[in-house]
Amino acid sequence: MIKSKLRDVRTGLANRRTMRVAHRKLTDELASFRTTAERAEIDELLSRHTAEETEQIRDILYRHDAYRLAAGGRPTAGMGGYLG
Predict the structure, then answer these.
(1) What pLDDT sits at residue 68?
(2) Distance CA 84, CA 77 (A)
(3) Structural domain total, the chain
(4) Residue 78 resides in a domain
């Protein structure tokens, strides 16, 4: 009984760690989309999918936009995506 609970906890922790690593990798990859053209391209790709399917990606892109604006950088594609 305790062994199975411990195994479940370890499995859960390992799964969470895997998800965090994957999220970090996705965040790093999306950070490379900085120019207006690059953001327009990714926004075009995202528009082909439902909001539910793209929610995580859009959240990450929005945070990147907000961080750039807060850091005093010039917005490259507008908050939340391409506006051109």
Answers:
(1) 81
(2) 8
(3) 1
(4) no
- Residue 75 maps to a domain: no
What is the domain extent for residue 45?
2-70
pLDDT of residue 39: 86
In-domain check, residue 82? no
CA 32 to chain centre: 12
* Residue 53, H or E segment: helix 51-70
Under 8 Å CB-to-CB from 75, ≥6 apart: which residues? 65, 68, 69
Task: Give the pLDDT score at 84.
Answer: 43
Query: Residue 67's pLDDT is what?
Result: 86
CA angle 8, 10, 14 (to 5 degrees): 115
Q: How far apart are CA 83 and CA 78, in angstroms?
A: 6
The distance of Cα 44 from the centroid of its chain, to the nearest Å, equals 16
